[in-house]
Amino acid sequence: MSSERVVDLLRTAYADEIETVMNYQTNAIVLDGVRAEEIKESLKQDVQEELGHAEQLGQRLKQLDARPPGSAEFTARQESLQPPEDSTDVLAVIDGVLDAEEDAIATYRDLIDAAEAANDPVTEDLAVTLLSDEEAHRTEFRGFQKEYQRD
To answer: Within its chain, how far is the Cα of 96 from the centroid?
Structure first.
């Protein structure tokens, strides 16, 4: 059995992934303009990947005789990823995505450490895999950020 800290971090990561899905989907819908199209397409693709992350985290919680949080236990935390008032403010969305990715990266690093300390190699392996995905997303959106800041 894994530690309480591992379970808490898995539940946090699960909720964060679900919130990210909601915010990516919303921003992919509300962004306007020709310049927004590439960002919208990237967000739509990332929705599926983030949903897959949530599924994997939920399954791991189940394997540990725990459960993922439901909506009544959910506290939204991604303030910077809320849809911008100006639907053409693509840079605000990019910055929000980067904030969410940094938060996910920190959570997965914490989960790796906690799983290692709890001698839970399965959770550790899952966290390493998800960390790699989040770092790839961060790299992609850093590139978008450079381009938009230049313009």
So the answer is: 11
Which domain covers residue 114, as residue numbers?
A: 4-75+85-150
Query: Tell me, what's the pLDDT at 1?
Result: 52
Cα 4 to its chain centre, rounded Å, is 22
Q: Is 36 part of any domain?
A: yes
Domains in the chain, number: 1
Amino acid 80 reads S
Dump pLDDT digits (tens) for 20-64: 999 999 999 999 999 899 999 999 999 999 999 999 999 999 999
Structure pTM? Answer: 0.95
pLDDT averaged over the chain? 96
Domain assignment of residue 116, yes or no: yes
Helix 37-63 vs helix 90-117: crossing angle, to nearest 10: 20
Q: Is the pLDDT of residue 101 over 70?
A: yes
Phi first, then psi: what are they for 64, rounded to 5°? -95, 15
Instruction: Give the mean model confidence (pLDDT) for residues 100-126.
Output: 98
* DSSP secondary structure, 8-76, as one string: HHHHHHHHHHHHHHHHHHHHHHH--SGGGHHHHHHHHHHHHHHHHHHHHHHHHHHHTT-----GGG---
